[in-house]
Amino acid sequence: MTVLEAHYDQALHDEIRTLAKARNAVILAHNYERPEIQDVADFVGDSLGLSREAARTDADVIVFCGVHFMAETAAILSPRKTVLLPDMAAGCSLASTINAEQLREWKASYPGAVVVSYVNTTAAVKAESDYCCTSGNAVEVIESIPPETTILFCPDMFLGAHVKRVTGRENIVVWMGECHVHAGIDPEHIELMRERHPGAEFTSVLDAVSSGAVSSRRLQVLSTEGMIRRPAQSEADEFIVATEIGILHRLRRENPGKVFHAANDRASCAYMKVTTLPKVLRSLEHMEHRITVPADVAAKAKRAIDRMVAIGGSQPKPQLSPAPDPAVDPGE
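Above: the chain sequence. Below: its structure as tokens.
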């Protein structure tokens, strides 16, 4: 069983919660963050759920424990709030595969096309897009667009290939970008784990399964939040999870009677893991690092983000209370 590296410090945890209350701050954490970061957060969720929470919060300060593009999205949706990113090194390998200039050049080659950008993109790329989407609502976004319209989908080639197959739309052109973590979860890893755990239900990344490279036996193709919900809906007691390993902490915490295995123990995003409890505390103490987006870019990007938020998807999960014993990762 994958054991997630955790650096719990109850005193530091309590200090962060006290300071967050004093600052009227909400702490948002992505499902892939370190276990102790998820546990100190007010809300844990996927990009869409956290975007919605950023838009609705009454807090004066949003501490975004995720990566840079997520904090940008929060700043766009809450322009009057102070949005903080605890570590500016929290980038994204997928978002870096396309920039605004490249997207403009691509659009020029397909006059009249509609651009659908995965939420893992910079604000500047979102500003050049017609829609944003997440893995949870990508198909719904595509299906909301007239079938005769050419669609440029970027930057995730795995998600793009999946929605193209599922919708049957041949007029979807896909940008060849990838997340280094998900690209490293290949059919060989998956089948090896399934041999080791033959009774386990398998919740999978999109590309290998949708393309037929992996058997559909005991298979669920789900978004990140779909993976979170599935164990409570399933009669299975054991699961193989093919995504970034940070999600295992929340799965085990919310389903203590079930067992979860990573399809690949090395599927860890270094960018998500740069955020630590000391950095969250420093962020609140010094109100750093503030994320802002130029007004003209934000106005254009917001149109695409608003469409994403409006079409399908999932809600963030409030932090459980009371918190578990911080010395143990539940389910281990």
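Residues 181 and 269 are 6 Å apart (CA to CA).
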